């Protein structure tokens, strides 16, 4: 259902297009309850509704089903879902945009409205980023100086740096990982014939990866580990110990399946739990140890 269903008023399509075109850098217009500009990162898709308004509507829908509030009550006062039953009619003039707005749009003891404070924060942050990018450009040919510089930058700004230079990162990356990726990116630019896989080989062509690194890239670590296990399974099984709590995590379930199959000629069913396979393998190993003792 469209977000407009939950509103008394909102910008029409043409008005919204004009608001979007005139939006300051780093801001988007929220056409839901905010009816104001918000930071770009407060939106998760193309719908002109910020995450805060979307969450408010989601809460409202639950309360509609419970019967605790009606659609008309919500349209009249969206803040009712947060327990705020009063929307003040008293207005206050914002020192920044000079508009008369309800005091609900101001934080306590502030004379600048929430929208303008948000805009100021984005502008300040964008200005800081322009300076940081400029300084990185100055230092990019001296990796030692560059590394010392980026170490002084907060992680949230480093994330914007890697985005600007299209370096790429994982969501789980720590600050140290991001710094390493930045330095490695510029190292490759300084030495374009160096293997991009990180092995240190010098190639004939620029920005290429050697065959060895390509093969490693195609084989994830888990697969390489499994291949090594398969190649050495005879030696592993010949000296395989009793599995205890201390070495329970040394082998994966699939590896234990292979070990059981090597010992008995029968591979357990895929539905067999790891603990069950461990018990089965331990029983075989214990029997083997007993037979060794009898022979000796």
Q: Summarize this, please?
A:
The chain has 12 helices and 4 strands.
Q: Can you tell me about this structure?
A:
The protein is mostly helical and 296 residues long. The chain has 3 domains: 85 residues, no CATH class; 78 residues, no CATH class; 75 residues, no CATH class. The chain has 12 helices and 4 strands. The strands form 2 sheets. The protein has a two-stranded antiparallel ribbon. The longest helix has 26 residues.
Topology, pairings included?
Blueprint: H1 13-21, E1 27-30, E2 36-39, H2 51-66, H3 71-76, E3 91-93, E4 100-102, H4 114-139, H5 143-151, H6 155-164, H7 175-190, H8 211-218, H9 221-231, H10 233-238, H11 253-264, H12 274-295
Antiparallel strand pairs: 1-2, 3-4
Supply the number of helical segments.
12
Mean pLDDT: 81
Number of beta strands: 4
Q: Structural class, from helix and strand content?
A: mainly alpha
Q: How many angstroms separate the termini?
A: 79 Å
Strand content: under 5%
How can the largest sheet be summarized? 2 strands, antiparallel
- The H-and-E topology, N to C, reads as HEEHHEEHHHHHHHHH
Residue windows where pLDDT falls under 50 for at least 5 positions: 218-224
In spatial order, strands of the major sheet run: 1-2
């Amino acid at each position: 259902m469209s977000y407009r269903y939950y509103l008394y008023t909102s910008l029409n399509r043409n008005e919204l297009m004009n608001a979007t075109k005139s939006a300051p850098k780093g801001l988007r217009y929220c056409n839901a309850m905010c009816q104001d500009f918000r930071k770009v990162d407060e939106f998760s898709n193309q719908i002109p509704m910020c995450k805060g308004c979307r969450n408010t509507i989601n809460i409202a829908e639950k309360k509609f089903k419970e019967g605790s509030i009606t659609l008309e009550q919500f349209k009249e006062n969206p803040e009712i879902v947060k327990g705020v039953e009063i929307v003040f009619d008293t207005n206050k003039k914002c020192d920044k945009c000079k508009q008369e707005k309800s005091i609900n749009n101001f934080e306590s003891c502030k004379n600048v409205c929430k929208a303008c404070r948000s805009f100021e924060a984005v502008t300040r942050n964008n200005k800081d980023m322009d300076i940081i990018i400029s300084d990185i450009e100055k230092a990019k040919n001296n990796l030692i100086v560059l590394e010392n510089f980026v170490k002084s930058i907060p992680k949230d700004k480093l994330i914007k740096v890697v985005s600007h230079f299209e370096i790429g990162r994982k969501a789980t990356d720590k600050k140290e990982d991001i710094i390493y990726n930045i330095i490695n990116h510029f190292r490759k630019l300084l030495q374009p014939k160096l293997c991009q896989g990180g092995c240190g080989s010098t190639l004939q062509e620029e920005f290429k990866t050697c065959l060895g690194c390509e093969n490693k890239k195609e084989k994830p670590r888990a697969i390489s580990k499994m291949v090594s296990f398969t190649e050495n399974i005879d030696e592993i099984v010949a000296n395989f110990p009793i599995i205890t709590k201390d070495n329970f995590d040394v082998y994966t379930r699939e590896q234990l399946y292979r070990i059981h199959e090597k010992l008995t000629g029968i591979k357990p069913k895929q539905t067999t739990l790891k603990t069950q396979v461990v018990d089965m393998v331990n029983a075989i190993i214990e029997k083997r140890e007993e037979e060794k003792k009898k022979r000796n």
